[in-house]
Amino acid sequence: MTVRIDIGEMSGGKRGELDLEELLATRLLVQGNSGSGKSHLLRRLLEQSANWVQQAIIDPEGDFVTLADKYGHVVVDAVGTEKDLQMVASRVRQHRVSVVLNLEGLDADRQMKAAATFLDGLFDAERDYWYPMLVIVDEAQLFAPAAAGEVTEEARRRSLGAMTNLMCRGRKRGLAGVIATQRLAKLAKNVAAEASNFLMGRTFLDIDMARAADLLGMERRQAETFRNLDRGHFVALGPAMSRRPVPVKIGPVETAGRGGSPKLMPLPDQPAADAKDLIFTAAPGELPVRPRPPEPVVSTGEVLDQIAGAERAATDAQAPAATLLDFGEREETIAQIISEILAEEDAAFQPIASLYQDFQVRCRIAKLPGGTPDLQVFREKLSVARAGVDTDDVDDGAWQQAELIASQLPEEMRGVYLLLAKAALAKAPCPGNLEIATAYGTRSPGRARWLLSHMEERGFLVCATDLRGNRIVTLTDLGCQTAPGDEAAA
């Protein structure tokens, strides 16, 4: 069965038609500078073929998500882990659903990893699900760069490998690559060379015009024609369209992208004084930026006087209690004292010996029933207090199990485990490195990362990163995990 789709108008009023079955076998490369109409061409192709073939669109800017409203494409946002995205890609092939992989909001490195994971999932599907599929990759130079850029070598290698598989080996698996790029010079040659159909739009740089002319079999002196093409006009060549280069004007589309070209509009008419106020005056509800006041300088004499005053208060004789020691409020008193210690500035980062000495003095002042706890007990309670864990909205049974598991860790790590357990049980985002470091008694985010690795090696938790770079911690013994959280969150 031959299916021909209309992509626009050729010279002489003839319709520019594209053989869809031939396209599935021979692939397509679209090239044109920014503003030449590449996205419009891809949208026309997608709309005309939506009822005939399954489609998957790798969309780095979120321009094609509007296809979902009219043509039923499922928008797949790049969230969750790479394993989740690979499973989604496998189900896409199994159930023959057209999708748009929305990579908007990710940096270049994570876009490459997400695209590679999704393409690998499509490529590795079982043989029973090798149905025909158009795989459209917009801004292909981002995913198959000709040279290393600012992204990591791992991301570049994975993305380039996935794109090479799509264009070189995808045909036997039913995958037909349609790649669009702003510059041929930036696209890896082994990816571009596998396309047999070409639509070349407006191009200005000599190196790109020369490569476009070579691909179309045109003479070098004819390469200048690419510089004079209007927006939405392309030169087509390939077995799916024409055996010789022919000009094509792309037809209209029924949907629109969320971006579009900027339109000129007049500036607001207002006096210069008002404009100055808009810039330098805080809006209602907006906090003005004020410089932080300098911290007061405490002299050595004042520190010695404070120490002497604390020692005198501790040694002052007080009348003994008229009854036996009451241990009912002992734990509450200890928690209150530790809370007061940690409330002081920088107390959470002081050495344990200094904090314990302060704790002993405060316990004597408060006439703590039963005497001052030893250093090991203080370490345990301080660790939990540093984490600032509030268990009001956590199931009591699950929290008791978390405390039992935490007791198997060293004293200084128990608070960190309970901090993570609270987040996991409440389905809250994973705490950031700074919060974890504070719970451990340090300011170093690197120390927090080491601590999580150490706890993971001992089997207490498993760390994973979703496609947006957020951390997810799974507490294996509790059987729950945190929501994705930013490691750098304050």
UniProtKB/TrEMBL annotation:
InterPro entries: AAA+_ATPase, ATPase_Atu1862_pred, HerA-like, HerA_central, P-loop_NTPase. Residues 24-302 form the AAA+ ATPase domain. Pfam families: DUF87. This is AAA+ ATPase domain-containing protein. It comes from Roseibium hamelinense. The lineage of its organism: Bacteria, Pseudomonadati, Pseudomonadota, Alphaproteobacteria, Hyphomicrobiales.
